[in-house]
Amino acid sequence: EKPKMIRIVVFPDGYTINDRPVELSELDRLLTRLADIDRNQTILITCTAASPHERLIRVLDLCAKNKLTNLSVVSTY
Q1: Measured between alpha carbons, how far is 45 from 41 in angstroms, rounded to an integer?
Q2: Which residues contact 43 (CB under 8 A, 6 or more apart)?
Q3: How many CB atoms lie within 10 A of CB 17?
Q4: What value does the mean pLDDT take over residues 30-34?
Q5: How far apart are the first and last CA of the chain?
Q6: Dihedral (C-alpha) 16, 59, 70, 8: value to the nearest 10 degrees?
Q7: Neighbour order of strands in the sheet with 71-76
């Protein structure tokens, strides 16, 4: 079943997808599976103020690799 929206949070020490902690390799596998369902689904990426930029770039790279383009990126303070 197609999810309504995928929520990825980038923390200084890790990631979550839909509130579930994941390692970067698992996030890659999940995004690949989600892209197989629907490449146009909405992905909301939230980055905390303390998160290094490189962590956000890694998530964006995984989305690009899987041709997921319906992205929104927000920052929390």
Answers
A1: 13
A2: 5, 6, 7, 8, 63, 68, 70, 71, 72
A3: 18
A4: 95
A5: 33
A6: 10
A7: 20-22, 14-17, 5-11, 42-48, 71-76
Cβ atoms of residues 56 and 15 within 8 Å: no
User: How far, in Å, CA of 17 to CA of 63, rounded?
Assistant: 13
Residue with tokens 């939230």: 46
What CA–CA distance (Å, rounded) separates 38 from 18?
17
Tens of pLDDT, residue by residue over 40-52, are 999 999 999 899 9
Does the model's pTM come out above 0.85? yes
- Amino acid making up residue 21: P
